[in-house]
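lol ok so funny story. i was supposed to be doing the assay writeup but got distracted and ended up predicting the structure for this chain instead. priorities right. anyway since i did it might as well share w the group, maybe its usefull for someone
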Amino acid sequence: MADFESQKKDLMKEVRSVLDEVENLYENASDDGSDKGKELKAQVHDKLNKTKSKMSELEDTLVEKARATAERTDEMVREQPYYAIGIAAAVGFVAGVLLSRGRN
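and the output, tada:
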């Protein structure tokens, strides 16, 4: 779960970095004064703001879903520890079989 969280944080950081770079390019873009240029710049600004808003909503949703999944998993392990151990053993066995076949 910690690895997933780390990957998610890295991805969110990368997306934010890209959005910040696009915003920086937008702000530093020269405006030729034409109506077409102004309209295009306004469209880019609007789409950038919408993307940032959606990104924030997505991040909140992902955090909430990850938290809920972790809580459900924790509850299941506490309520049925032998069931959880059995699932982990089965997954380990299947992974071992698949890995040993790959070597042959």
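The chain has one domain: 2-79. The chain has a mean pLDDT of 80.
back to the writeup now i swear
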